[in-house]
Amino acid sequence: MRPEIPDKLYFKIGEVSKLAGVATHVLRYWEAEFPIVNPKRANSHQRLYRRVDVEMIFTIKTLLHEQGYTIAGARKFLESGHRMGTKPESTVPEDSTACLTRIKSELREMEALLIGRDKEKKI
Predict the structure, then answer these.
(1) pLDDT tens across 74-100, in order?
(2) Half-sphere exposure of residue 93, counting CA atoms within 13 Å on the CB side?
(3) Were 69 and a residue from 31, 74, 116, 119 both cysteine, which residue would form a disulfide, CB within 3.0 to 4.6 Å?
(4) Is residue 3 in some structural domain?
(5) Tens digits of per-residue pLDDT, 9-29?
């Protein structure tokens, strides 16, 4: 469950850290790994996160900590335009059993050919 985000324009890194429940160094790391999180910088070089950045941090935390994505997997998920609650399309063919059975059969045929060649060489 996500905490309520206060109604503000900008959030400092410490505030975002408390809201998201992650350390500030983790936020800086995610900022480097996920270009979609891009806080503005104040004249004092302090990071200023917008509401959209905070929401994206919650999404990243959910992907990594709750759904078990890797950093690369979460990055791909977000870059492909998927939203939380949706699943990416499967790349496995619908009739994968038939496909695997056909591959297994072809491999056995190749094995038989190779065994036959070995027997010819020994004679």
Answers:
(1) 999 998 876 665 555 445 555 778 888
(2) 6
(3) 74
(4) no
(5) 999 999 999 999 999 999 999
pLDDT digit string, tens, across residues 25-73 = 999 999 999 999 999 999 999 999 999 999 999 999 999 999 999 999 9
Q: Are residues 36 and 74 in the same domain?
A: yes
User: CA 82, CA 92: separation in Å to the nearest integer?
Assistant: 18
SS3 49: strand
In a domain, 29, yes or no: yes
Structural domain of 47: 11-79
Beta carbons of 17 and 27 less than 8 angstroms apart? yes
Q: Is residue 1 part of a domain?
A: no
Q: How far apart are CA 85 and CA 28, in angstroms?
A: 26
CA distance 85 to 49: 24
